[in-house]
Amino acid sequence: MLEGVGLSFEIEPATLDEESVKAGFDGDTSALAAALAKGKAVDVSSRHPHAWVIGSDSIVECAGRRFDKPRSRDEAEEHLRLFSGCALTLFSAAALARDGQIDWSGVDRAVLSVRPLSDQFIAEYLDDEWPAVSGCVGVFRMEGRGATLFEAVEGSHFTVLGMPLLSLLAALRERGLMMA
Questions:
Q1: Number of domains in the chain
Q2: What does the CA dihedral 39, 31, 95, 137 come to, rounded to 10 degrees?
Q3: What CATH number does residue 46 fall under?
Q4: Where in the sequence numbering do the catalytic residues fall?
Q5: Which of 13, 97, 121, 139 could form a disulfide with 41, with the two C-beta atoms 3.0–4.6 Å apart?
Q6: Could you tell me if residue 136 is inside a domain?
Q7: What domain range includes position 62?
Q8: At residue 179, does pLDDT exceed 90?
Q9: pTM score, two decimals?
């Protein structure tokens, strides 16, 4: 997404222990997504003085339960069975940090209505999409066969892809990091 809008950047994974952030978190899913995005941005920016760093994270919630990226194909299959016929709420967050301090953060949400999925469909879908969807919190890539999982999607396309891009771009322009 960032390349698509003409931003130059380098990728550096954060060393944030996400599991301990999640374990100690007492708040709603939107706030958790924001906390993870902020934690990643602060972690990387503390190692790069004066650099602007973007951190991001996405979390899916379904029937009151939070879902992480599937750790295995079996877990992906289990997630898809649980999602079948339900509405997923996807929270995508981004944060900007500089010198180890948060300067901006934003969260957006989308609601994705999963159609009823047969076991045969799930197996064939994962035959085609695994392991590409192993890094996707909802076990889908909209740019792949993921669109076939849904009956309806409410929310920003960019949020569904994993980042509240429009608000991030506004924040970058406000800071003179992109042309206005």
A1: 1
A2: 80
A3: 3.90.950.10
A4: 57
A5: 97
A6: yes
A7: 18-174
A8: no
A9: 0.93
